[in-house]
Write a structure and sequence with these properties.
Helix content: under 10%
Number of domains: 1
Largest sheet: 6 strands, mixed
CATH class: Mainly Beta
Length: 402
């Protein structure tokens, strides 16, 4: 999971209030409204991505061209026929959360289904075979968004995926009182569990969880004026197990015991907020310092790295972002193959960004990574291939892939 999603600059609109959801574990009764219509997806989407579900929280922005929905949002341009899509994409389903509703687009040409839900500013995450998102202060999970079947996990303001299959951390940090976390589980194919695995666990005062590190949580200071490095906290024993060192600008992402972060020490960052990128393996540390730390060189025409990024699920790659040479408000994705000698591959696409920040989410196979800026379209990239594919999906700083 990437920290950028918590910084979405356009997702803070107030949403309509609805009745309280059912108790955790109970299905949520919904009445899907299905609109039979021909598929709207162009034939240029020809990726060997398998069956993937893309969920995007787009915050109600108006992007692109095409026919408009009743809510005033344009659809992507209409293709000639759904049969022109790559056969491996026919079973893909696109789900967008917009203006308090889920919009589910069926690539097989059967139409579009809308589910009215008060989606909050927290981004959705993929957990095993499910998508989990926050609506009206509750974490909801679905393995079948097409038929509207949802299960309530418990109260949450935002989500952090856990390292164990089917598990997710529910974070409460938008109300007075201590920040709390609660470990929840999605009952589904391959995972048998109850919705809540723990009670409420209070995070140490002045800190907030941002990412998992093995079974622990990485905590950063809630005061933006404090530049103290993050801590690794064991929520079950309520104790700090690792203290990082350095001048942290941002936690980019984590994978098992690895932490990708940007260094903001004096003189480290250049114009445009380009900073050194570190990957630290806390599994090789002694509880203090930075364990095994490596600085990733930027491409030859870049001075450093911008915010945002994501490890691939298999840990073989990290996607990060650099500034585009001679371009303002543009970010360029970079795919880094990790290992003894990291290989940095710049992708030949530029993303429109409103701040020095990009968004990246991998598909579960680690074969594709989806990147986005503030406007335009979501772009699919493949390791080893510098040429991306622009998807007919509006840009978003908060989306998930299943």
């Amino acid at each position: 999971m990437s920290v950028w999603a918590g910084r979405c600059p356009v997702c803070g609109a107030l949403l309509p209030q609805v009745a309280a959801p059912p108790t955790p574990g109970d299905p949520v009764p919904l009445s899907p409204r299905t609109k039979p219509r021909r598929a709207r997806w162009p034939a240029v989407v020809a990726l060997a991505a398998g069956s993937a579900l893309v969920v995007a929280v787009v915050g109600g922005r108006t992007v692109g061209t095409g026919s408009r929905s009743a809510a005033g949002r344009p659809h992507p341009p209409t293709p000639a026929s759904a049969t022109t899509l790559d056969p491996q994409l026919i079973h893909r389903t696109l789900v967008e959360a917009e203006q308090g509703r889920l919009r589910i687009f069926h690539f097989d040409g059967t139409g579009e289904t809308d589910l009215n839900l008060p989606i909050g500013p927290s981004h959705p995450v993929s957990v095993g075979d499910a998508i989990v998102f926050v609506a009206d202060g509750q974490a909801l999970a679905t393995t079948s968004p097409q038929n509207g079947t949802l299960a309530t996990l418990g109260p949450a303001d935002r989500l952090i995926p856990a390292v164990n299959p089917g598990q997710v951390w529910l974070v409460r940090d938008q109300s007075p009182g201590p920040v709390t976390v609660q470990l929840a589980c999605v009952h589904g194919p391959g995972v048998q569990c109850t919705p809540l695995l723990t009670g409420l666990l209070s995070v140490p005062a002045g800190l907030r969880p941002v990412a998992p590190v093995l079974d622990n949580l990485l905590l950063e200071n809630t005061n933006p004026r404090v530049t103290a490095p993050p801590l690794v906290w064991n929520p079950f024993a309520n104790r700090v197990v690792f203290r990082l060192s350095g001048s942290f600008v941002e936690i980019v992402d984590t994978h098992l015991s690895q932490v990708a972060w940007r260094d903001g020490g004096q003189g480290s960052c250049t114009t445009g907020d380009q900073c050194p990128l570190h990957i630290t393996d806390l599994g090789n540390g002694n509880g203090n310092g930075n364990g095994n730390d490596e600085i990733i060189p930027p491409p030859p025409d870049a001075m450093g790295y911008l915010g945002g990024g994501a490890f691939s699920p298999d840990g073989a790659y990290l996607v990060a972002f650099t500034s585009a040479p001679n371009e303002l408000n543009k970010a360029r994705p970079v795919i880094i193959r990790l290992g003894e000698h990291p290989d940095v591959q710049a992708v030949s696409t530029l993303l429109d960004v409103g701040e020095p920040l990009g968004a990246a989410v991998w598909d579960p196979t680690s074969d594709l990574v989806f990147v986005s800026g503030l406007s335009g379209s979501i772009v699919a990239c493949r390791p080893g291939d510098p040429t991306p594919t622009v998807l007919p999906i509006p840009a978003s700083y908060a989306f998930a892939v299943l």
